[in-house]
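Summarise what follows for lecture notes:
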Amino acid sequence: MLRTIIVGDIHGCFDELQDLLELCELATDDRIISVGDLTCKGEQSRAVLELFISDARFSSVLGNHDRALLRFWRGEAVTLKWSQEKTRAELEPERDRYFSYLGSLPYVIDLGEHVVVHAGVRPGVALAAQGEEDLTELRTLGPDRTDRAGTPWYQTYDGEQQILFGHWPAPVPRVGRRAIGLDTGCVYGFHLTAYIIESHQFLRVKARRAYEQPK
C-alpha cells in the first residue's frame, strides 16, 4: 500500500532523517514529502539534499532557510544569517547543482485533501493567491507575520483542505482545526516527526544532539 509520509523540518539533520526513515520502514512505493527547510543549522545539509535529489520518492516544498540561500545565489540583496552562511560554504563546491534543485522546489504541494506548505496560509485566501512570504514565514495574523505572540494562523484556518506545515517548532505537533504542524525542533535537540496521511499516524525519533540553541 502506498503511503504518503510528511516529514517536519530537517535542517541538515541527516542522521536523524535516516533514523526516522528506518522507524517508518520506508518501502519502495512510499512517498516522502518534506515541509521544507531541508538545509541550514544542522551539519549535513549536503547529505540531505543529495538524498532528495537522487531518490524519486522524495520531494519538498521550499522553506524560508532554503529560500534565503536561493535568493543569495540569485544575487538578490539579502544578508545571510550565520547558520545560512555556514551552509552556503558547505554547499559551495556544487553550488550550481543545489541552486538548480532548490530553484525547482514549489511553495505548495497540493495532494487533494491535504496541502503541504512550509509555514502557513492566510485564512480566507485562495491557495493560488497565497504570497511567498506567508507560505514560508507565516506564524501569526497580526501586522508582523513572523511574530510568535499573536493569533496563530492555524487556530483560525478552517478550509476544506488540511494544511500540513512546519517552520514553527514546538515540543509536540501543533494541531489546529484543519492544520497540523510537524516541526518538533530536531535541530534544537528535540525530535524529528513524520505524519503518515493514510493511517493518520505520527512517528518521531529523538535528535542525536542539539545543533543550535532555540530562540
